[in-house]
Design goal:
The protein has 857 residues and is of the alpha/beta class. It has 26 helices and 27 strands. Helix 4 runs antiparallel to helix 11, helix 13 packs across helix 20 and helix 14 runs antiparallel to helix 15. It is elongated, with a radius of gyration of 34 Å. Bound molecules: adenosine-5'-diphosphate (ADP) and magnesium ion (MG). The site of adenosine-5'-diphosphate has 13 residues, from helix 22.
Length: 857
């Protein structure tokens, strides 16, 4: 501002606040009933919100009504902006500049508003820093208080869980993003890190906010502890710098210390099954290739009835545990619930009424309070005794048959009868969203409030009486006593009756239809009414704050109970899923087997049924068996024509293994699984349409990542690897990759490799642990019928031309293709495979159409 001296005091106040804000932040400045944006903020805000841009004394302005602010803010955050809220800190007085202060800064990673949070998704703010010791990360879900740190010498080991958790906002050291982008090409890990960060909202802080010593202090202060030993962490843990940065950033945005941080846990990649970003995408774990949750694995297995349950399931899937007893425990609970269908149904009905306690507590603790939130605690507490009774009943029914694992979850629930009764007695049945609306405290709960309210009621009947008396006195039947928030109480007389208005009426306002008056008596009464209402609201607020304090006193117990409820919800959901789709309980051990009888693809089978609904006939997903073992049938090479079902089959095996490892039952008749430490899934480039030109490079990068990071405990799903380049290149690469996976003498990672390269099937001659399988088709005249059956042995032909015909290619093209094929076959250009050390050499020479690869689809 060049002419600062010309600024009004209010605008000076505005600029003072504005100056302290980070970049990319719009300031919403409270003026009366509106939040106003000024200058550039007004222009940006008006455009993003579709509201009017006005000008006052050359100053661009755009305003939103304060009661609708939440909705508007939601849009601004969705557009990648941050929003600073500046409120009036005292009641307005005419002629005096109102004090204003920054209330909070809302950003995608720090908002707590239910409107701006996806109920079923965790919502993380994540800080990252990279140094010689490796990648340091800290992630915090401010809405629930979940807080974790991790350090790993290899960023590739941390990016899987971070990708899966999909943070809403990142906090980085100033300039890091650019440095990572500019790293030398061979530093793949740094580039992967950059790829992870670049598309997300990144907020930058000076490097000193990431220092470990200061970070440890900040973190201990936020947690209210003197050291971190209680969480099993050294005070010098290298990720505490990132943790400090997260807490600092959250504190800045809340304009107060976060009040709901209670624990800090360390994430260790060695304790979880790793699913790297490409695998998450290829196996469609959290979202389908079309971007929907419904058609993803998560969507298919989430039968939770509570938001906290869905979020817990997301966390379990993001970091599947390698802890066998824990997996078995979950399976057992599911089994116990399956065994007692009527108790299960009862439990689900009760859980359905449980509200989102973790987020409600987060809001109550961080000064976002409204009566409905408190009502959520009340409703939830009301269910606890019934839930406990239901679980006791289940336990009684189970006696002598199972292990009673469910009753251990039951033991983590705490009934809070005192608090339950306090809330039931104190809160009204119908609760408003806004404290200013009043009437949320139950009548009869507090004598003083009842007295103030009766004053208001008395006054209301006084007004009715006044209306009747004045109608009689003036003879004006249409005379009305009315109220508006701007004018207060007044008497309204229509135009036709103005002649009969008595002399003691004082005119206040003329409207189109008549005149508005007050009388001395009405003015006095108005004062009385306002003061009674004000006092009654103030008393209500006092009582509300007492109730909130009572809830927060029990916050530890409440959140422990909420955690147990979320877990019950997920497991009960799985029990329902398992019953509905006939899942079996997989048998897990530390061995190296993966055997599946009659396995199905958990998502495809559900989709098929959905598509079939309303049509005649039943769904027809064909189940298939799988037998893999690290030291015998280590690599299954699956051949078969396009559309036969190869991709579906190999993915279903990976998904069944993953489901087994999060403790869920699986879509199969029987399943045995030796724990898997990593699942890798890669798709040949031409299946990957969405990702631009360098797809082959991506394919190779990803393949390299597998070969470098796999262990003998891993499970690898390769789909048409090598397809992204010319036949001979691709075949050679595929060939070498398979050899590499088979390299050690005794064992190797369990691998499923789907390919249309017939030639690869000859590898079985050289590699004893490679087995050929194919997806069978039936030939019928010149047509083929897909039977979706996986059988032992290599496919004898690739049937590309038949598939092309099914796809509707013009007959002339089909005929020409047949001619070329005959020619090729007569010239015997089928590749003779080299011994494992050599490369395929033979060249195809066919004229005149050179693009004669048989993979027409
Ligand atoms: P490929 O990889 O061999 O080209 P896909 O796995 O893509 O074949 O499957 C082709 C189609 O067949 C898909 O639409 C899929 O839904 C269907 N399909 C695959 N496996 C089965 C199965 N076991 N039962 C029923 N339909 C299947
Ligand atoms: Mg395929």
């Amino acid at each position: 501002m060049s002419a600062a001296e010309k600024l009004t005091p209010m605008m000076q106040q505005y600029f003072e606040v504005k100056r302290g804000l980070p970049a990319n932040t719009l300031l919403l400045f409270r003026l009366g009933d509106f939040y106003e944006m000024f200058f550039e903020d007004a222009e940006i805000g008006a455009r993003l919100l579709g509201i009017t841009l006005t000008k006052r004394q050359e100053t661009p302005m755009a305003g939103i009504p304060h009661h609708a602010a939440d909705n508007y803010v939601t849009k601004l955050l969705a557009a990648g902006k941050k929003v600073a809220i500046c409120d009036q800190a005292e009641p307005a007085q005419s002629g005096k500049l109102v004090k204003r202060q920054l209330t909070r800064i809302l950003s995608p990673g720090t908002t707590l508003s239910a409107n701006q949070l996806d109920a079923a998704k965790n919502h993380y703010l994540c800080a990252l820093s990279l140094d010689k010791a490796g990648l340091h990360a800290a992630w915090l879900d401010l809405s629930t208080g979940e807080f974790r740190i991790a350090t790993d010498a290899h960023p590739e080991n941390l990016l899987p869980v971070l990708t899966a958790l999909d943070p809403a906002e990142l906090v980085l050291i100033e300039g890091d993003l650019g440095r990572w982008q500019a790293a030398p090409h061979e530093q793949h890990a740094v580039h992967a890190l950059h790829q992870f960060c670049a598309p997300r909202l990144c907020s930058e802080l000076p490097g000193y906010h990431f220092e470990v010593t200061g970070g440890a202090k900040t973190v201990m202060d936020a947690l209210g502890v003197l050291n971190l030993q209680g969480f099993g962490l050294a005070n010098g843990h290298p990720a505490l710098g990132a943790a400090g940065a997260v807490v600092y950033y959250a504190t800045e945005n809340l304009c107060a210390k976060p009040q709901n941080l209670r624990s800090l846990q360390e994430y260790r990649s060695t304790r979880t099954l790793l699913l790297d970003p490409a695998t998450l995408r290829n196996l469609e774990i959290f979202s389908s290739t079309r971007g929907t949750r419904d058609a993803s694995l998560l969507g298919a297995i989430d039968r939770s009835t509570t938001a906290a349950g869905s979020r817990l399931l997301e966390r379990w899937l993001a970091a599947p545990t390698l802890d066998l007893p824990e997996i078995v425990r979950r399976q057992t609970v599911v089994g116990e619930l399956i065994a007692q269908p009527s108790d299960l149904a009862g439990l689900r009905e009760l859980l359905n009424k449980v509200r989102d306690i973790p987020r409600i507590l987060g809001r109550l603790q961080n000064r976002l309070r409204n009566p409905r939130e408190l009502g959520g605690v009340k409703d939830t507490l009301a269910q606890i005794p019934a839930i406990m009774a239901c679980l006791d009943l289940l336990d009684a029914h189970l006696v002598g048959t199972h292990g009673g694992e469910t009753s251990k979850v039951r033991a983590r629930l705490t009934d809070l009868p005192k608090l339950r009764e306090l809330l039931a007695g104190g809160l009204a049945d119908e609760l408003p969203n806004d404290l200013a609306d009043g009437n949320y405290i139950r009548a009869g709960y507090d004598a003083e409030l009842d007295r103030l309210r009766s004053l208001t009621t008395d006054n209301k009947s006084w007004l009715a009486e006044l209306e009747r008396a004045e109608q009689e006195r003036t003879g004006i039947k249409s005379l009305k006593v009315r109220y508006t928030s701007v004018f207060g109480y007044y008497i309204e007389v229509t135009k036709a009756n103005l002649a009969n208005v008595p002399a003691d009426y004082i005119r206040k306002q003329t409207t189109v239809s008549g005149e508005r008056y007050v009388t001395e008596a009405l003015k006095l009464k108005e004062k009385e009414i306002f003061s009674a209402e004000e006092k009654s609201l103030a008393r209500e607020l006092e009582l509300f704050n007492e109730l909130v304090a009572a809830v927060l006193d029990e916050s530890m117990t409440l959140s422990r109970t909420a955690d147990a409820l979320a877990e019950l919800d997920v497991l009960a959901g799985w029990a329902v899923l398992a019953r509905e789709w006939d899942y079996c309980r997989p048998q897990l051990d530390e061995g190296e087997l993966l055997s599946i009888t009659d396995g199905r693809h958990p998502v495809v089978e559900q989709m098929m049924k959905q598509e079939r609904l309303g049509l005649a006939g039943s769904y027809t997903f064909v189940p298939n068996d799988t037998a893999l073992s690290a030291d015998d049938a280590q690599i299954l090479l699956i051949t078969g024509p396009n559309m036969a079902g190869k991709s579906t089959y190999i993915r279903q095996v990976a998904l069944i293994a993953l489901l087994a490892q999060i403790g869920c039952w699986v879509p199969a008749k029987a399943c045995r699984l030796g724990l898997v430490d990593r699942i890798f899934s890669r798709v040949g480039a031409s299946d990957d349409l969405a990702r631009g030109n360098s797809t082959f490079m991506v394919e190779m990068n990803e393949t390299a990542n597998i070969l470098n990071n796999t262990t003998d405990r891993s499970l690898i799903i390769l789909d048409e690897i090598g397809r992204g380049t010319s036949t001979y290149d691709g075949l050679s690469i595929a060939w070498a990759v398979v050899e590499h996976l088979h390299r050690s003498a005794e064992r190797g990672p369990r691998t499923l490799f789907a390919t249309h390269y017939q030639e690869l099937t000859q590898l079985a001659k050289h590699l004893p642990r490679l087995k050929n399988y194919s997806v069978a088709v039936k030939e019928w005249n010149d047509d083929i019928v897909f039977v979706r059956r996986v059988v032992e042995g290599a496919a004898d032909r690739s049937y590309g031309i038949q598939v092309a015909r099914l796809a509707g290619l013009p007959l002339s093209v089909i005929d020409r293709a047949k001619t070329i094929l005959t020619q090729l076959e007569s010239e015997d250009v089928s590749v003779t495979l080299p011994s494992p050390q050599a490369r395929p050499k033979k060249k195809i020479t066919v004229a005149p159409a050179d693009d004669s690869q048989l993979n027409l689809l």
